Amino acid sequence: MSSDEESVEDEGVPYLGEYEGDRNEEEERHGKGKAKLPNGDVYEGEYSHGKRHGQGTYKFQNGARYTGSYMNGIKHGEGTFLYPDGSKYEGYWLNDVRHGRGKYTYPNGDIYEGEWADNQRHGQGEYTYVETGSKYRGMWVHGKMDEVGELIHANHRYSGGFLQDKPSGKGKYVFDHGCEMRGRYELVEVVLEPDNEEEEAITVVEPKWKIEELVPLD
């Protein structure tokens, strides 16, 4: 984000943008005001001792917009950010990054609602895949499904362990027609054959389901 203190040289004279609004005795921006920054971004809202502080709206040249709370010139507290690609975040910020509880709507319509840390999905949260209607509900670590969670589909669901976005370890499938399949995911090596003779085969590790017990539900 641009800062009001940034300037560009124009014939040796610094250009700090345009400002209309309140000032304090030291002539600092203080109170409510509107500023046009050197790069064309526009901020309208509250200031304290020359910095954005309190509630305000910041409009970027690229079409993005933030409306919410500032502290000492950076996003901090509750606010909504509209991104140029059409995605939207509604929630809490800490030191200019998404942190705390928040809801993110992605360009394709997918939605994540839950905990964030350092701009990543982290903690408890739910992700909805709009195309299929499936959901993941559980733990996230550094942006990936991890530890324990549940994948919910149209006619069945999987509950169990996850590691780096993939099912891992013990788990169970519960089907709507009345049975429960218990087992575990184990990592196995899978060889991916190349599309042409000039490329080499690639070995990857993928989780493979191994059933241990099939239980009819009452």
TrEMBL record:
Single biological process term from Gene Ontology: axoneme assembly
Biased composition (Acidic residues): 1-12
One Pfam short name: MORN
Entry-linked SUPFAM superfamilies: Histone H3 K4-specific methyltransferase SET7/9 N-terminal domain
Gene Ontology CC: motile cilium; nucleus
Comp. bias (Basic and acidic residues): 20-30
Keywords, in A-Z order: Repeat
Region spans: Disordered: 1-59
Superkingdom: Eukaryota
Alphabetized PANTHER family for the sequence: RADIAL SPOKE HEAD 1 HOMOLOG (PTHR43215:SF14)
Full protein name: Radial spoke head 1 homolog
